[in-house]
């Protein structure tokens, strides 16, 4: 196995150009599990840990190398809440938002926030940069639109710190559990509600019908909230697997989305 | 036997004190050398090729591609087993390597030794295995119908015509639980240059490994030395051999030391589990709540090999009712042969499964009668002088059933439901922030567990120990296995208090150095290894006093009338002071055709109370508190005893709400800690414990074994609490969110 340890972004891009298809290593909390299970045998590994440019965390931009530990103590409430649910303190100290995107699990907790705020994924290579909406980047379960010679630089996000927002996640344990369903709700304005649901489809997804049902109503009635819940339940595509049944996922997604929205309402 | 409860409180770190483990700090700071950390010069690494389906005919195995790889030194299959081809702790029926019929997923087909772990693993995968898949037998009813069983234990007692007016009847299921010891299986075999070998492997009883290994390796038992291993947990899963025979074969073949370490996924198929069970119960009582008749049919899933299942199903059958009187008892327990994962010993050894069903039945009977569930239990509680409702054995020794029930009920309840400002980690859903306080309901549930101490049914085992005086103090020698439970402190404490000396060390000897201490299981080592150490220490003390003509012994030496008359060095100048004792408990009977007889050495009992907060809409549960009142004889080490209680409760809670080996067509679907969920510290409840101390007449300093009970009735207590909160029947453990949500208005 060949290891490359660049000190800056140019070093990463050059290494990628020289070894297209090389494996990028950030926190390793997904990658090393794959290697240990012998699902992957990387030949060339490019280590991202020392690359300062990936660690930018400022209003409007979050670098791919920002760890859960930093997000947990950062200014964006929903992101902090979701970061707190990721793994254990050890995992949060190592794992990154970029790695969550790189893995592109339908249950990835960070992805719910990115979908809710309509983040754009910034990719870079020696031939230049390009920016993809989250929905164009995440194309299927564990599949994304990154080219072999690209690194994920980070995500462009709106300056969301002051918006009403919340995250919630159902799992059969108090902490350190993969989501059976997860959910992020943000309210950029009274006439704009966004609901992203994870682990209930091939990728994280938004539920536009449900959003439409509560847009413009900062104090929705119980009936309207019930309708919202039903629309979430009907607007997702969960499967049955060893973690939960489709029926439970649908039911729980509706309840979770309604409760998470309630946390974003005034009062 | 009166001398066993003499206390010498003046000795530092003796019985009754919370002595710290000598290996505690090394373990938490990472310097402790676990089994998997061992190395030997020139060692090779082993790897195992395993079946990926649960039932198949093995058509052909071609090892040549593996042998052709650089760095590979041996590839062995069944034909390379030098001696006997089967192993197992009680019944030796598990093939060392696969025969023509593959009977479980994960069955070892071939083993490899290579220069490094990576090469060994790749070589194992390079072996060409041709299988013809067969239909696996995975259903318990079907196994019974086909007569695929290892043992049927039948209990009939009392008046066959006894009938009660109030009847509750149902079927219960409890899933297979993995022992999930944090240390995976690891081992090392080192050839001794004379045709024999030294072996370190995951074990709970080296002297029972020895004859199996010698037979399989075609060696004389004197040529094999099985060493005590530094384990990262066991819970029963190391009672049967895993990799040891493979290591021995590879070491003998290559003439080099061979080491193996299973990863977590391999570990899931590399050790036995707690039997999943299907249980049908019918309880009949009179209007006053006296149990009149209990009928039970218990189906235990053993997997394809018997190993310890015959003894496990016996325990299930004899403890099918709990600690209650009953006029007529009919229990049939079956250990069934399937193609599911192998089950065997695990903390509670067959008594846990029926405890879940029977205690649920007691709650439902109480509801049917309109009496308090604890009152119903008290009305039926047995005690000394009574007979066990199943086997008819008279209870001779202290067994405070009513006391533990009353004591647990008297523990104050925790604070009521949390308010809006509570830390979300204390609510169901935890860090996931799923459940606002307003969405919660609280429930309280109880359960009582009864179990045997030591082995049963005529298996009259013993334990040897040696206590040796040296100029620096005393050394306790034992072959008993420290699996993390704290034997290392307990035997030293017993020796200190008995000798009158605080300078005591423990040496864990291999099979060539000392006789058997018996198994570290069945809640037995404090009483058995401890009993042997007590007697050896008494003998050493007596010999020392006699040699120097003294009346007291301490770390300085022998004293007479308050004067030191001989230092330890003086004493030993006239020859060693070294006593070896073999301690035996009272004998037990083999059961008659109706399962009757004095089958058990002794019994122990505990009662649990669980308090849970449930979010019924999402089906999420947080266990707020588990209280326990437990019969412990006398407490030898309070800190350690509380450790066993807290850990045991966490394990029982796990089986109540999250721990389940998911099996489909005999294949484990969640063979990792990503998906086999164990409780984290945030899931562990507050624990309140009341220790009921009625000294055992035969345990050292009055101690009784105690480490299985905290797990046993924790599971039914937690489920009972969820039932109380939700009104759902919950006849299956673990309870899944779906089980709670189902039936709730959609
Ligand atoms: C015990 C445990 C618990 C976990 N709990 C959770 C959880 O609760 N929620 C959750 O969502 N996840 C969880 N995970 C998964 C994992 O921690 C996260 O997905 C994490 O965000 C991965 O980040 P990383 O930096 O460790 O990625 P790595 O493992 O280093 O990389 C993951 C993938 O992304 C690629 N990659 C990484 N960085 C870049 C980049 N800048 N550009 C392009 N590709 C890149 C890598 O090549 C690799 O394919 C858990 C994992 C473990 C082991």
Integer average pLDDT of chain A: 97
Look at the helices and sheets of chain A and give the structural class.
alpha+beta
What are the low-pLDDT stretches of chain A, counting only 5+ consecutive residues below 50? none
Number of helices of chain A: 11
Biggest sheet record of chain A: 5 strands, antiparallel
Large-scale geometry of chain B: globular
For this structure, the CATH topology of the domain at 165-264 in chain A is Enolase-like, domain 1
* CATH topology label of the largest domain in chain B: Aldehyde Oxidoreductase, domain 4
Spell the H/E element sequence of chain A. EHEHEEEHHHHHEEHEEEEEEEHHH
Major β-sheet annotation of chain B: 7 strands, mixed
If you compute it from the alpha carbons, what radius of gyration of chain A comes out, rounded to the nearest whole angstrom?
Answer: 19 Å
Give short descriptive properties of this protein.
heterodimer, A: Enolase-like, domain 1, 5-stranded antiparallel beta sheet, 4-stranded antiparallel beta sheet, 11 helices, B: 746 residues, alpha+beta, Aldehyde Oxidoreductase, domain 4, Aldehyde Oxidoreductase, domain 3, 7-stranded mixed beta sheet, 25% helix, globular, binds flavin-adenine dinucleotide
Question: What does this protein look like?
Answer:
- Chain A has eleven helices and 14 strands.
- With 267 residues, chain A is of the alpha+beta class.
- Chain A has a domain of 100 residues: Enolase-like, domain 1 (2-Layer Sandwich).
- In chain A, helix 9 runs antiparallel to helix 10 and helix 10 packs across helix 11.
- Chain A is globular and about 60 Å long.
- With 746 residues, chain B is an alpha+beta fold.
- Chain B folds into three domains: 155 residues, Aldehyde Oxidoreductase, domain 4 (2-Layer Sandwich); 178 residues, Aldehyde Oxidoreductase, domain 3 (Alpha-Beta Complex); 329 residues, 2-Layer Sandwich (Aldehyde Oxidoreductase, domain 4), CATH 3.30.365.
- Chain B is built from 18 helices and 31 strands.
- In chain B, strands 3-7-1-14-11-12-13 form a seven-stranded mixed β-sheet. A six-stranded mixed β-sheet of chain B has the order 9-17-16-15-10-31. Chain B has a four-stranded mixed β-sheet with strand order 18-26-27-30.
- In chain B, strand 20, helix 12 and strand 21 form a beta-alpha-beta unit.
- Chain B is globular, with a radius of gyration of 26 Å.
- The chains are: A alpha+beta (267), B alpha+beta (746).
- Bound molecules: flavin-adenine dinucleotide.
């Amino acid at each position: 196995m060949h290891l490359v340890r660049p000190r800056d972004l140019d070093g990463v891009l050059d290494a990628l150009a020289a070894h297209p298809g090389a494996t990028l290593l950030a926190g390793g909390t997904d990658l090393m599990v794959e290697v240990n299970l012998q699902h992957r045998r990387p030949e060339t590994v490019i280590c991202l840990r020392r690359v300062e440019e990936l660690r930018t965390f400022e209003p409007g931009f979050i670098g791919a190398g920002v760890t859960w530990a930093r997000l947990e103590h950062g200014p964006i409430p929903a992101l902090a809440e979701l970061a707190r649910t990721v793994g254990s303190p050890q995992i949060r100290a190592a794992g990154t938002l970029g790695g969550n995107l790189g893995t592109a699990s339908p249950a990835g907790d960070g992805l719910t926030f990115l979908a809710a705020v309509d983040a754009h994924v910034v990719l870079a290579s020696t031939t230049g940069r390009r920016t993809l909406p989250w929905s164009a980047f995440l194309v299927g379960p564990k599949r994304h639109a990154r080219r072999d010679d690209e690194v994920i630089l980070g995500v462009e996000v709106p300056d969301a710190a002051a918006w009403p927002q919340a995250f919630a996640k159902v799992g059969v344990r108090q902490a350190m559990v993969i989501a059976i369903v997860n959910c992020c709700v943000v309210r950029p304005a009274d006439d704009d509600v966004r609901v992203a649901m994870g682990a209930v489809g091939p990728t994280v997804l938004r539920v536009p019908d449900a959003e439409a049902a509560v847009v413009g109503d900062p104090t929705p009635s119980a009936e309207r909230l019930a309708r919202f819940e039903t629309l979430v339940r009907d607007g997702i595509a969960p499967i049955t697997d060893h973690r939960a049944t489709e029926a439970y996922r649908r039911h729980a997604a509706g309840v979770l989305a309604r409760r998470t929205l309630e946390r974003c309402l005034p009062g | 036997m009166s001398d066993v409860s003499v206390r010498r409180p003046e000795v530092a770190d003796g019985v009754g004190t919370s002595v710290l483990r000598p290996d505690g700090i090394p373990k938490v700071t990472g310097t402790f050398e676990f089994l998997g950390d061992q190395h030997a010069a020139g060692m090779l690494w082993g790897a195992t090729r395993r079946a990926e389906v649960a039932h198949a005919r093995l058509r052909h195995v071609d090892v040549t591609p593996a042998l052709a790889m650089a760095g590979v030194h041996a590839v062995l299959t069944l034909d390379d087993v030098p001696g006997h081809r089967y192993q197992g702790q009680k019944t030796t029926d598990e093939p060392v390597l696969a025969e023509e019929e593959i009977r479980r997923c994960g069955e070892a087909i071939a083993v490899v030794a290579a220069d490094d772990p990576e090469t060994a693993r790749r070589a194992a995968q390079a072996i060409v295995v041709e299988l013809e898949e067969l239909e696996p037998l995975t259903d318990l009813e079907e196994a019974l119908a086909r007569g695929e069983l290892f043992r049927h234990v039948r209990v009939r007692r009392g008046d066959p015509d006894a009938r009660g007016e109030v009847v509750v009847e149902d079927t219960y299921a409890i899933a297979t639980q993995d022992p999930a010891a944090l240390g995976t299986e690891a081992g090392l075999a080192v050839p001794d240059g004379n045709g024999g070998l030294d072996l370190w492997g995951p074990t709970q009883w080296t002297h029972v490994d020895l004859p199996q290994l010698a037979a399989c390796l075609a060696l004389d038992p004197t040529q094999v030395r099985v060493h005590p291993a530094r384990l990262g947990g066991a819970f029963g899963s190391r009672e049967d051999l895993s990799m040891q025979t493979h290591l021995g074969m590879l070491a003998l073949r290559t003439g080099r030391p061979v080491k193996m370490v299973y990863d977590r996924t391999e570990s899931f198929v590399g050790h036995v589990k707690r039997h999943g069970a299907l249980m049908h119960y019918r309880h009949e009582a009179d209007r006053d709540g006296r149990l009149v008749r209990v009928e039970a049919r218990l189906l235990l899933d053993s997997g394809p090999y018997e190993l310890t299942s015959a003894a496990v199903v016996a325990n299930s059958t004899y403890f099918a009712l709990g600690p209650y009187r009953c006029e007529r008892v009919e229990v049939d327990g079956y250990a069934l042969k399937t193609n599911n994962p192998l089950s065997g010993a695990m903390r509670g050894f067959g008594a846990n499964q029926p405890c879940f069903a029977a205690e649920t039945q007691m709650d439902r009977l109480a509801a049917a009668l309109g009496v308090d569930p604890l009152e119903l239990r008290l009305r039926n509680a047995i005690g000394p002088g009574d007979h066990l409702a199943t086997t008819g054995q008279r209870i001779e020794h202290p067994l405070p059933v009513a006391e533990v029930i009353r004591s647990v009920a008297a523990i104050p309840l925790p604070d009521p439901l949390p308010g809006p400002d509570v830390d979300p980690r204390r609510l169901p859903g935890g860090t996931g922030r799923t459940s606002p306080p307003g969405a919660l309901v609280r429930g309280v549930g109880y359960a009582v567990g009864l179990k045997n101490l030591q082995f049963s049914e005529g298996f009259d085992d013993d334990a040897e120990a040696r206590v040796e005086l040296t100029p620096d103090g005393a050394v306790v020698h034992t072959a008993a296995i420290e699996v993390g439970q704290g034997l290392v402190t307990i035997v030293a404490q017993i020796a200190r208090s008995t000798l009158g000396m605080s300078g005591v060390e423990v040496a864990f000897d291999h099979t060539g150095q000392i006789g058997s201490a018996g198994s570290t299981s069945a809640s037995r080592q404090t009483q058995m290894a401890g009993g042997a150490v007590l007697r050896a220490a008494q003998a050493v003390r007596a010999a020392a006093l006699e040699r120097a003509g003294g009346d007291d012994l301490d770390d300085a030496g022998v004293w007479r009338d308050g004067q030191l008359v001989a230092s330890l060095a003086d004493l030993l100048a006239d020859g060693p002071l070294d006593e070896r004792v073999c301690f035996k408990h009272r004998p037990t009977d083999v059961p008659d055709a109706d399962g009757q007889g004095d089958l058990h050495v002794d019994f122990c009992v505990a009662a649990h109370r669980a308090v849970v907060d449930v979010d019924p809409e999402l089906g999420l549960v947080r266990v707020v508190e588990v209280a326990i009142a437990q019969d412990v004889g006398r407490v030898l080490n309070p800190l350690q005893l509380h450790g066993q209680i807290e850990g045991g409760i966490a394990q029982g809670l796990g089986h109540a709400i999250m721990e389940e080996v998911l099996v489909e067509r005999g294949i484990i679907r969640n063979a990792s800690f990503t998906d086999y969920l164990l409780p984290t510290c945030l899931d562990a409840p507050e624990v309140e414990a009341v220790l009921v101390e009625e000294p055992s007449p035969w345990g050292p300093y009055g101690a009784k074994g105690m480490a299985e009970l905290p797990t046993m009735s924790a599971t039914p207590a937690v489920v009972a609490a969820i039932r109380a909160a939700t009104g759902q029947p919950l006849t299956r453990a673990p309870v899944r969110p779906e089980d709670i949500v189902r039936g709730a208005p959609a």
